[in-house]
Design a protein that fits this description.
The protein is built from 7 helices and 8 strands. It has 221 residues and is α/β, with parallel strands linked by helices. The strands form 2 sheets. Strands 2-1-6-7-8 form a 5-stranded parallel beta sheet, sandwiched between helices. The chain has a 3-stranded antiparallel beta sheet with strand order 3-4-5. Helix 1 packs parallel to helix 2, helix 2 runs parallel beside helix 7 and helix 4 packs across helix 7. The longest helix is centred in the middle third of the chain and has 23 residues.
Length: 221
């Protein structure tokens, strides 16, 4: 088990050392829980940090069960199997997606403020979350990133089911899963501290990473 997301990030960073100090690497955290993990990876690799905003589409009444996800750029992924199993209509899917799209826009404004998103085209993008269950949110993020034309997409998480990590290899160029326990139960089961990450914490980590990046460019750190 990981003590918390910061420790999980340091463990994950140890599996990504081949990307340390490369000038074309960027680290992208999935808010909110993926950002503390991504911050540790960015610090260890000395790479810039940004967020990749993705919202899960939860089944009404069972919101922890993802029936799909949306991401910046108009990307939407639907898990047809879950939609059929739960008897969810197209109108319900559209309604949930509309609500989550409003939250997606709010988060972009809240987290970045006036800072522009990092340039992705032609770069190695390491996409990080605090764990995967079905993988739908990560797949949406990978799909959105493809439209930005990166040179390579690395999907990296501290913990996930083995079958989810294997399936994700069809989407990302590389998949790094630090732990693939069986039985899996859920992401939070593998953290001693899995308290919800706040918007303020995400914003503070992004600001701290941005300042560190400036210092590195100027040679003062």
């Amino acid at each position: 088990m990981f003590r918390d997301r910061r420790e999980a990030g340091r463990v994950l960073a140890g599996m990504l050392t081949e990307y340390r100090d490369l000038p074309d690497v960027i680290v992208l955290g999935l808010p909110r829980g993926g950002v503390p993990v991504a911050f540790e990876v960015a610090v260890a690799l000395q790479a810039p940090l940004d967020v990749m905003i993705v919202r899960k589409l939860g089944v009404p009444g069972h919101e922890e069960l993802a029936m799909g996800a949306i991401a910046s750029g108009g990307v939407q992924i639907i898990n047809d199997e879950i939609v059929r199993y739960a008897g969810i209509t197209a109108a319900v899917v559209a309604s949930v997606a509309a609500d989550e799209r409003m939250e997606l826009v709010r988060r972009e404004r809240t987290y970045r403020g006036e800072r522009a998103p990092l340039a992705v085209e032609g770069r190695i993008a390491i996409l990080i979350d605090d764990g995967l269950a079905t993988g739908s949110t990560m797949r949406a993020a990978v799909t959105a990133l493809r439209a930005m034309r990166p040179a390579r997409i690395v999907a990296a998480v501290p913990v996930a089911p083995l079958d989810t990590c294997t399936a994700l290899q069809a989407d990302a160029d590389e998949v790094v899963c630090a732990m693939t326990p069986s039985p899996f139960y859920g992401v939070g089961q593998w953290y001693d501290d899995f308290a919800q990450t706040t918007d303020g914490q995400v914003r503070d980590l992004l600001e701290k990473a941005a300042t560190a990046s400036i210092d590195l460019k100027s040679g003062t750190a």
